[in-house]
Amino acid sequence: MTDTQEEQAPAGRLMRIQEAAAEVGLTPRSVRYYEELGLLRPAARSEGDYRLYDDTDLERLRFIKGLRDDAGFSLAEIAQLMEDDAARERGHAAFHATTDPSERSRILRDRLVRYDHQIAMLQTKIGRLQAMVDETEAKRAGTAVKIDQLASSER
User: Which of 73, 59, 62, 70 is CA-nearest to residue 122?
Assistant: First the structure.
């Protein structure tokens, strides 16, 4: 390994950025941008300092893409969701590293706060989507009324 490599990648197939991006339906530019934002870190670097991605990276990219494209989350919201998950993982390790009941209680309370934060973000997203559904249903109802009025006037 050279000094430019960040860490030893887990066993398995490693892909360069173009392959990884194509595999999940993104552009290499998007993948680089996600790295700049801290949403992703390549599993390893090649001798030529190319980014190398493993299956875990691909899963993370699919997750980010799904939140962005399917659920309409902003990258800032995605970053916050992922940070909450990472903090819970760190808390899990800290919980098992201590036997102090007060420290364990603090860790669990922090976990609850992070869950509450995620729930609030998701409920806000649901609320915005529901408002869009309600607005579209109202427009549809108005159009249906106009159709009925036209049908009545034609008789």
Answer: 73
pTM for the model stands at 0.69
Domain enclosing residue 85, as ranges: 73-155
Q: Are residues 77 and 45 in the same domain?
A: no
Regarding whether 117 and 137 lie in a shared domain, the answer is yes
Q: Is residue 31 within 8 Å of residue 85, measured between CB atoms?
A: no
pLDDT, tens digit, 9 for 90 and up, residues 15-70: 999 999 999 999 999 999 999 998 998 888 888 888 899 999 999 999 999 999 98
Number of structural domains (the chain) is 2
Residues 116, 109: Cα–Cα separation, whole Å: 10
CA dihedral 30, 32, 33, 38 (to 10 degrees): 130
